Amino acid sequence: MNDPRATSQVTSAVSARAARLASIPSFQRVEAYIHEFGSRRQGRTGGCDFTFGNPHQMPADRYVNTLRAALTPQDDQWFAYQSNGEAAREAAAQSLRRLLDVPFRPEDIYLTTGGFAAIALALKTVADPGDEVIYSLPPWFLYEPLVLEAGLVPVKVKINTTTFDLDLSAIEAAVTERTRVVIVNSPNNPTGRIYPPELLRRLAELLEAASARIGRRIYLISDEAYNRIVFDGLRFHSPVEFYPHTLLAYSYGKTHLSPGQRVGYLALPPTMPDRDVMEPAISGLQVAMGWVYPNALLQHALPELEQFTIDVGQLQRRRDRLIEVLGGMGYRVWRSEGTFYLYIPSPTPDDEGFTESLARRDVFVLPGVLFETPGFFRISLTANEDMIEQSLPAFEAAIKESRP
Ligand code: PMP
Predict the structure, then answer these.
(1) Which of 246, 321, 227, 291 is nearest to 80 (CA)?
(2) What is the pLDDT of residues 130-162, one digit of tens each?
(3) Which of 255, 289, 305 finishes a domain?
(4) Domain range enclosing 322
(5) Cβ–ligand 1 contact at 253 (below 6 Å)
(6) 113 CB less than 6 Å from ligand 1?
């Protein structure tokens, strides 16, 4: 019965790498929340879903019409293999030039299946197994699996939890001879912080000096998935403006709140040194990682997709409503500068317990433990207006319950 060989056959069914990935605690926790909250909401109409950056309203007509138009073939190659399509590259480069005032060219753009693949591609372009990747907590919770899958070593540092700014001295102290990459995410998920140009300039100086000190170039991966989701007329600044050894990862999934339509890119600034060796390396990886190019349909749609975004004003109004009402109840809500999120101190140190007390009232948010910063919770502003209004009594009851 209990034949040990049977067990060993089962364990050997998956590679050590896959088993290791599946057992990352932060990854498991996220999966558990998706599953648990998903099943509790299933079949119910009243749940207020503030968990993930998913839409809770019908897509814009313009978005649907753009995809519809892109579906109509204009030649016999319309659905042939597409790699880095010229028209899409040109449209993306033009739009980046406008946004950042950096002279990107079409050949600087490598089209991918969204931000995930752009980050994975960037990591694998510059880092070898065993190299270290520094990023700040709270992070987007899927950096860790992407880093580990590439055979790299995550090195985590804290941010300043008062200003939500990067802690530059913590980054500097984390640099070792194995450091190869620093990931920076602005506008930041989950804090909503947009890092100011002065901070990015100091980060660039730090990385320049640290690279010289360890005798090896440290690359910066700038995760800019939310660079079009910016509030209050603020101007977004990218690390590419300050540090030429930056690889920029972008996703249209945020700009159009359509994360199921996989399209994004990795971009190299025209000032990137070593681009001659990088270009063939990136193109080769795009194929070898499993043809991580966007579908033909999305490539055809991209020039038009570049012409508009979701209603950012609507997200900002939701932010303002929540800041006003939750603030009045006693929550200390930081005024998010962009992204879909508010990252709020939990009224009790036990953020999971607090999250559960909201979930009992059919209001679903994510606890700070998922972002490796207990004591906070995250709200996604992609919840619709009805959900926001319906959730308010639950937020009030939960904060009252948390007080002795
Ligand atoms: N980076 C950040 C900070 C994100 O929040 C996300 C999506 N949640 C991604 C990258 C990946 O974006 P996509 O799913 O569009 O590839």
Answers:
(1) 291
(2) 999 999 999 999 999 999 999 999 999 999 988
(3) 305
(4) 4-59+311-402
(5) yes
(6) no
